[in-house]
Specification:
- There is one protein chain.
- The relative contact order is 0.10.
- A hairpin with a 4-residue loop joins strand 5 and strand 6.
- Helices cover 41% and strands 15% of the residues.
- Strands 4-7-6-5 form a 4-stranded antiparallel beta sheet. A 4-stranded antiparallel beta sheet has the order 8-11-10-9, with helices on one face.
- Residues 1-34 have low confidence and may be disordered.
- The chain is globular and about 45 Å long.
- It has 215 residues and is an alpha+beta fold.
């Protein structure tokens, strides 16, 4: 088979070779970013991207640009804030951390700008700015949808969310990677993905929970 491929390529024109390489590179890029809706021409995805919403056209949800194929999992992630009156919170620790936009390790609730988030993932992402465009910086535009720091302007990226603080971005990136691990499980077992992400052993396949903190 390899010999046939070499013989075939020998008869290709330079332009054809370049086109072939471009196609192969495009496939590779699609594979690398195949779990992300960044750059999608779907109007539903474009609306859902900045709000971590659900695209009814594609029948999937989005969180920090990652595609969530399970509607139940997407709803459980609940990646948006909820209005709350701090004085009415029953947990004393929550009442302390809420004004500081911090996370309550006891209740697993986080607070940003007076809103309540029900997981460390959603809380950590809310401390950044969801911006799938990458703004006007070419370095940032290349980083959107990945985890890293722009060499030009020093902005930190976690998926479609940008951060000014490396410390804040580090917390979000750990949770983002946990979500990626859960989505890998989702392909084989929906229960495993949801249980693993929220810290429980899967009742169906018995897999252990996804570690709470990843770097």
């Amino acid at each position: 088979m390899r010999g046939i491929c070499r013989l075939s390529l020998r008869w290709l024109s330079p332009l054809s070779v370049l086109l072939l390489v471009g196609v192969l590179w495009g496939c590779q890029q699609a594979t690398i970013r195949g779990d992300s809706a960044i750059g999608s021409d779907c109007s539903g995805c474009q609306v859902a991207l900045p709000i971590n919403g659900w695209c009814s056209t594609c029948d999937h949800g989005l969180v920090a640009g990652l595609i969530i194929s399970s509607q139940q999992f997407h709803e459980l992630l609940d990646a948006h804030g909820h209005d709350v009156e701090i004085a009415t919170l029953q947990c004393g620790m929550c009442r302390i951390v809420a004004p500081e936009d911090e996370f309550c390790s006891r209740c697993r609730n986080g607070f940003v700008a007076g809103q309540l988030y029900f997981s460390e993932l959603t809380w950590s992402l809310a401390r950044g700015v969801n911006d799938a465009s990458g703004g006007g910086c070419s370095g940032c535009q290349k980083l959107v949808g990945t985890v890293g720091q722009c060499p030009g302007c020093a902005t930190h990226w976690v998926g479609t969310v940008r951060f000014d603080s490396g410390e804040t971005a580090a917390v979000a990136s750990g949770q983002y990677r946990r979500l990626q691990m859960a989505l890998a499980r989702l392909e084989g077992c929906e229960e495993c993905a949801m249980a693993g992400f929220f810290g429980s052993r899967c009742r169906i396949c018995g897999r252990e929970p996804i570690p709470d903190r990843l770097k």
